[in-house]
Design goal:
The chain is built from 5 helices and 8 strands; from the N terminus they run βαβαβββββαβαα. With about 170 residues, the chain is of the alpha+beta class. Helix 4 (about 135-150) crosses helix 5. The radius of gyration is 15 Å and the shape is globular.
């Protein structure tokens, strides 16, 4: 199992309209046709991760660029895809249905992560791209911050982790 941070932006770097994780997490933006695509994911490193590493069942941290906050967690529904099909451009992600995702009761800011001594490399200045790998220590660190942030987040997180059969290291 792999662990990922997927960044979403309401306004993409080229000025065009992007998206907001809350739309997915609230069930208003199903991504059964795929998330991303040729007009969204252009970073070569992101495309390489999607081609070589993304697998069904991988766990995903839903990070919203605006606000610099984590809004939830989800899973990969399958390996990454190509847009256009058979183009060799792996730029599409497939997430589980939003009803199976976890929307945090209270978002977690990057400042809160850092204040808790959790500072994954993907949140460092100058990082470009859409999808970033996390190691297990970084992922568990994020989960610990979420769990300790509020009673509501803790309860929701632990219920979701049970459903996805992931054991948080104590």
């Amino acid at each position: 199992m792999n662990f990922w941070v997927v960044k979403c932006r309401e306004k993409k770097a080229d000025g065009k309209r992007g998206g907001h994780w809350d739309n997915y997490l609230k069930g208003n933006w199903e991504v059964s046709e795929g998330w991303g695509g040729k007009n969204w994911i252009k970073n070569n490193e992101s495309k390489k991760y999607i081609r070589d590493k993304v697998r069904k069942g991988d766990l995903v941290v839903c990070y919203q660029y605006e606000g610099r906050e984590i809004l939830g967690l989800t899973r990969m529904e399958s390996e990454g895809g190509e847009d256009p099909e058979d183009s060799g451009q792996f730029n599409t992600l497939f997430f589980s249905k939003s009803r199976k995702a976890l929307r945090l009761a209270q978002p977690i800011t990057i400042k809160e992560l850092r204040d808790s001594k959790c500072d994954p490399s993907c949140f460092k200045r100058g990082k470009q791209g859409t999808i970033f790998p996390l190691d297990k220590v970084e992922f568990d660190g994020i989960l610990a911050v979420i769990s300790n942030s509020s009673v509501s987040n803790k309860k929701k997180l632990h219920n979701w982790l049970n459903k996805v059969n992931y054991k948080l290291k104590a």
